[in-house]
Description:
This protein is an all-alpha fold. It is built from 14 helices and no strands.
Amino acid sequence: MSQSTRAILCALGAFAIFSLHDVIVKVLGASYSPFQIVFFSVLFGFPLVTLMLLRDTSAANLIPRHPWWTALRTAAAVTTGASAFYAFSTLPLTQVYAILFASPLIITLLAIPILGEKVRIRRGLAVLVGLSGVLVVLRPGAVPLELGHIAAMVAAVSSSLASIIVRKIGKDERSIVLLIYPMTANFILMACLLPFVYVPMPLADLGGLAAMSALALLASSLVIMAYKLGEAVIVAPMQYSQILWASLFGALFFDEFPDGWTVLGASIIIASGLYIVLREGRSGQSENTPVLRTRSRFATPSVPRLAPLLRARKAAPDVPEDPPEQKPHLRGLPGRRPLK
Length: 340
């Protein structure tokens, strides 16, 4: 089995697990406020950050080198978590995914002012077509626009903003800084809101929250493995497989079946996102490749942004490989581009 095939399988498995994570969010969201779910998600997620701190041998402190960008990213990450959890709690899974899949389109737009990216006519048209797909899903005027739809759109925008900021400052900031500030802000803010929304949780529901963190850790590890095995342009499109899992899990657990408009809108959004990803993967088409380099999963409190995790994994010492002369089957093959 080739490395690319293994990368694809790892990515497909990861996004299937991410979808199970979102099913638990939806189940718990029927009984609890998203603020309460976020609080416990962060609480159960802190062991991951602790392990990263224990593995970090650098002598640097946790003071960000770009405090204003870090603060803006932290605010965006906090907004993403509460908004995404609320959207999953109130909307069909397929509708939430369809709207969140607009993130590559929004990242492409945000890359213009933040990264100085030049978006030419083809990518610009792809963004416009993809955003029209969001309108097809929402159908403003034809069906009532619910608060869940607004929350999903807010999550797509704020997650995109957090992603593009990581692309801007990620080379200078330590990975642990990019992870711990949003988690700490979420924990403190949700702790302040918790007395107003708290509902006692039985042991089974607390187990569901712990399962969310375990699923997030497993899926994140699989995505990291996929990016180490294959090119970003191969792995990133696998995120769209979540729409299939959303359709299956929605039908099995929630008696949800996507209507024709949702399917049409999601197809338009996915096609536009795929075009942008594949075009960025071509040499010379994009200076910053913002979509490919910000990874492929929107961040939530239990699923932190994958880019810092990937950077931390890359920085960890690897087992040295045999020199090329001892691998005759690799002679003459072009090297893969490094992850950033």
